[in-house]
Design brief:
Elements lengths: L6 H12 L8 E3 H21 L11 H12 L1 H7 L5 H8 L4 H13 L6 E8 L2 E11 L15 H18 L4 H19 L5 H4 L7 E4 H6 L6 H8 L6 E4 L2 H5 L10 H16 L5 H6 L2 H7 L7 H12 L1 H13 L1 H23 L6 H13 L1 E5 L18 H18 L20 E3 L4 E5 L14 H17 L21 H18 L3 E2 L2 E2 L2 H25 L3 H11 L2 E3 L1 H10 L5 H10 L2 H7 L19
Parallel strand pairs: 3-5, 6-8
Antiparallel strand pairs: 1-11, 2-3, 4-5, 7-8, 9-10
């Protein structure tokens, strides 16, 4: 395949032909390969710490991380424990007698990390990002998204989930007839939740998730559920306001939370509980909890015990493990080099904003002010979290320690309500192969784990690094000016800093970006331009600024384009592809490459693309925003 006809395939076809999806995975690609590399390195180190072959790093509480890992790895003990660790909590849920009893105990259940059909988060107030606020929304659905229930395959998936739930409850000692009733009621209640839950596409627009209400008006919405009592018991106080993320869910909450639905609510909580804790128990529970996820994603085999043990440990101690990874595998020289590159890309971005022809001077100046206020975080966070453990002598098990830590995390989250937002917090950790822009903090996070080839290497050419990490950095910067980020000011608060005329011009370009991707056939379905628009704008901006930086330094654009195609190569199971199309705000990787480069004038010049070539896109259809 020639680059002029399909850049993605020209660069990746040989790899795509040879690549094999691991039996315990759902995809393979650049990000997957790097994640596997990082996890393998860390797993080997953790095993060496556990058997005493490697001294512990000088990081506070790291010995507790290793103890937890040993506990997760000890499948013999987990098999001996069976369902014992969860017996007390399962009994607590089963012993809820009626809706009045549920009402009385809802706050206690929240504090004990039990599933509830309402969701809570403490996050920065979008209109005052210096202060944390309380958010309320739906607890979520069994299938990944509300639109998934319209798929012909949804009935089959729900049947698998129902059967899986019955088997898990039987393993936990619940009689089969009761387990069957719980599972049937859970499916019934889920069908009611989904009727009042937003789709991923609707949630992708940030202001659709921001509906502040006074606590008095909020509590008045509940006819049956004692929300005032719940807030006092779970949060410790009634805040001045509640931010509602899904108004339809709130407006229909009385049709969900009432005494007539009690049996379904109870079944739903029990089924949610058993499915959420199975991975912390015996191998028998782990095997029994696999069918639904495997059917939904196309995963053929479960990961080994060692992989699962590390994954559980990493999920609980991501800050500590991320700090270790950064110290051990990244180093100050690479951090200095990457920080310099980020600064150069920010400078180039500023120059491009200054030369922007469709923005007024007023809006340009405010955009540049936001850019200059942006905080850059490279490598890994330095914050170290404390560890809470339950000794084995006190009934400590993997599940008990997981629960204790989750309770501690929730208490810390609640304690941050109405407190100032810590702008030094990272959105991701050092061992994640990813990058992130945070609207509310106006910062970009570039973790150590992604700072390796083909994204970045001191051994790679500048062109390859710009096509790799350069486009990623530019992508994250561009999120500050995508359809969501553009609504936030330099402090991270929702605030309109655009002139009316500029805002109209911007929205015209956003709609063109939506149209550019919307309806493209891929993997048996169609891409949603609305769901993916923010990431598409960021991809376009990231590629544009990387090209501009390369041209300043007179480096090879051909090499830049080719490495850009290389970093997004991916081979996925059909099920996982379908899952991503329904839920992922990113476009399919092949389109992130081909459609984006089709909009770049330099691509046509470098590869001498003609109207008769496959990559030709009419100039009228090309979209360039940043």
């Amino acid at each position: 395949m020639r680059p002029q006809d399909n850049l993605y395939l020209a660069v990746n076809s040989k790899w795509l032909k040879q690549a094999k999806i691991p039996a315990d995975g759902v995809s393979t690609g650049t990000l997957d390969e790097l994640s596997t590399k990082v996890n393998t390195e860390l797993s080997q180190d953790m095993a060496a710490f556990a058997n005493g072959k490697k001294p512990l790093p000088n990081i506070p509480n790291f010995a507790k991380v290793v103890d937890f890992y040993k506990q997760a790895l000890d499948m013999d003990q987990r098999n001996r424990d069976g369902a014992h660790p969860i017996k007390k909590d399962l009994a607590e849920l089963e012993n809820i007698k009626d809706f009045a009893d549920f009402n009385t105990n809802a706050a206690k259940l929240f504090n004990e990390m039990m599933p509830l059909p309402i969701g809570w988060e403490v996050e920065p107030d979008l209109k005052n990002a210096r202060k944390n606020a309380l958010y309320f929304g739906s607890a979520g659905t069994i299938l990944s998204d509300a639109t998934s229930y319209q798929d012909p395959n949804s009935k089959k998936l729900l049947d698998i989930y129902q059967k899986q739930s019955i088997n898990l409850l039987k393993l936990a000692g619940v009689p089969e007839d009761e387990a069957t009733t719980y599972a049937e009621n859970a499916i019934k209640f889920d069908s009611k939740i989904v009727q009042n839950t937003k789709s991923a596409e609707d949630s992708a627009e940030v202001t659709s998730n921001y509906h502040p209400m006074s606590v008095k008006d909020f509590e008045a919405k509940f006819d049956n559920f004692d929300m005032a009592g719940f807030l006092k018991g779970a949060i410790g106080k009634e805040p001045d306001q509640i931010i509602v993320t899904d108004p339809d869910f709130l407006n229909n909450v009385n049709g969900l939370l009432n005494k007539d639905n009690f049996a379904e609510i109870k079944g739903w909580m029990i089924v949610e509980f058993i499915n959420s804790v199975a991975g912390d128990l015996s191998q028998q529970f782990i095997d029994a909890s696999a069918p639904f996820a495997q059917a939904e994603t196309g995963q053929k085999e479960l990961p080994s015990t060692a992989k699962q043990a590390f994954a559980i440990t990493d999920s609980e101690f991501d800050d500590l493990i991320g700090e270790y990874y950064g110290q051990t595998y990244f180093g100050p020289a690479a951090k200095k080099d990457v920080t310099k590159m980020v600064e150069e890309i920010l400078k180039t971005y500023e120059q491009r904003l200054q030369k922007n022809k469709w923005l007024s001077k007023s809006t340009r100046q405010k955009a540049i002010a936001k850019l200059k206020a942006m905080k850059v975080k490279v490598g890994y966070p330095d914050d170290v979290t404390d560890f809470y453990d339950v000794p084995a002598s006190q009934g400590g098990s993997l599940y008990a320690n997981q629960k204790a830590m989750d309770i501690k995390t929730t208490k810390e989250m609640v304690s941050e309500l109405d407190e100032p937002v810590d702008r030094d917090d990272w959105s991701i950790t050092g061992d994640e192969v990813n990058a992130f822009y945070n609207d509310e903090r106006n910062d970009i996070n570039i973790p150590a784990a992604i700072l390796q080839a083909p994204f970045y290497s001191k051994k790679q050419s500048e062109a390859a690094n710009l096509g790799g990490i350069g486009t990623v950095v530019g992508h994250e910067i561009s999120h500050a000016f995508d359809n969501n980020g553009a609504k936030f000011d330099k402090y991270g608060s929702l605030h309109n800093w655009w002139t009316k005329k500029d805002h109209v011009a911007f929205n015209k370009r956003v709609n063109a970006e939506i149209k550019l991707f919307d309806g493209i056939k891929y993997g048996g379905k169609k891409v949603s331009g609305k769901l993916t628009v923010s990431e598409n704008i960021a991809d376009q901006g990231g590629l544009s600024v990387a090209i501009a930086a390369a041209k300043k330094d007179h480096v090879s654009l051909r090499e830049l384009f080719k490495n850009y195609a290389r970093i997004w190569r991916l081979k996925a199971s059909p099920e996982w592809t379908q899952y991503l199309l329904a839920n992922d705000v990113h476009s399919p990787d092949a389109l992130r490459v081909n459609v984006q480069v089709q909009c770049q004038p330099d691509f046509y010049k470098v590869f001498k693309v003609k109207k008769t070539d496959g990559m030709w896109l009419s100039p009228k259809k090309r979209v360039l925003i940043w």
